[in-house]
Amino acid sequence: MIYHFLRTTHTEIAYARKNKNSSKSIIFVHPSSACSEIWSEIVNNDQLKSYDLICIDTPGHGKSAHCLNPQQDYQLESLSSSILEVINALEVKNYIIVAASLGTNIIGETAHLLKDCKGFFLIGPTLVGGAIEPEHILLPFKYAGVLLEAQPEDAHIDAYMSHLVNSSDQSLLNQLKKYYLQTDPKFRERLASSIGNKQWNDELGNIKRTEKKVAMLYGEDEKISRPDAFLTTDLHQWQNKIHVVKKAGHLIHLDQPEVFIQLLLQFTDDILVE
Fold first, then answer.
1. How far apart are CA 219 and CA 62, in angstroms?
2. 239 φ, ψ to 5°?
């Protein structure tokens, strides 16, 4: 992917874009301690060539700069505002958001301000808000602390990566580990304190206020978040159900890219108009 850079309030943000002149856009937001390269197989698929595809590296991740003021700039709301600034600067209209894991929280923080967003396509969502807090969403997981530690043990990183996907492909696991290690360690420290201090907005409420359709996708072999966590919420769920993908873990687009693309195309056909 070819990257471009934009200066935002909090740091310089990297993003990649394909098919800029399309009238329908898809914006991709990666999980915690990953980067936009995690979407490469998806955005390079010819089935999506009619869409304007934008992949953003959140602050401290991938090719985006590390923040000079971690305490302020790595708050969830600050991360979200950086994404919002990029979308506004690029003047994207008629788009949906695809987000995975913590990326869903980042989008949820300011979802109600995404005025031209037509829908949300969420992978392994971990949204919080109202009575729903992290302990209601996350499954018991021995290596969950890897996402909250600046420098965890190498073996723990490996174990965590093996639980993100159903695949045992070592090259994929090595790639995920590479993304993790290139992320600013101060981001994970700040995330830990944010969660400990309950520093988040009503993400579920913000998405609900948009009155836009929400697709929620989980892997059948999910080990990170609970597929039943949002059954009692009154979000405008696409097709009135939570989608469970067979032979897939937390990051279903890596385990089952073709199934993921077909669901995404169905969603865009339903949601995006010329």
1. 25
2. 60, 15
Q: Compute CA 53 distance to the chain's CA centroid, rounded to the nearest angstrom.
A: 15
Say how many C-beta atoms besides its own lie within 10 A of residue 194's C-beta.
Answer: 19
| Inter-CA distances, 182 with 14, 57, 59, 60, Å | 14, 12, 12, 9
Distance CA 1, CA 57 (A): 12
At 190 the three-state DSSP class reads helix
The identity of residue 144, as a single letter, is A
What confidence tens digit (pLDDT) does each residue in 170-201 have?
A: 999 999 999 999 999 999 999 999 999 999 99
Give me the DSSP letters along 33-90.
T--GGGGHHHHTSGGGTTSEEEEEPPTTSTTSPPPS-HHHHTSHHHHHHHHHHHHHHT
Compute the average pLDDT of residues 78-98: 96
Domains of the chain: 3-271 (3.40.50.1820)
Which two tokens mark 258? 């073709």
Q: pTM of the predicted model, to two decimals?
A: 0.97
Per the CB < 8 A criterion, the answer to whether 127 and 203 are in contact is yes
Q: How confident is the model at residue 265 (pLDDT cuts 50, 70, 90)?
A: very high
Residues 6+ apart with CB under 8 A from 143: 156, 159, 160, 163
Secondary structure letter of residue 148 according to DSSP: G
**How many whole angstroms separate alpha carbon 7 and alpha carbon 86?**
9
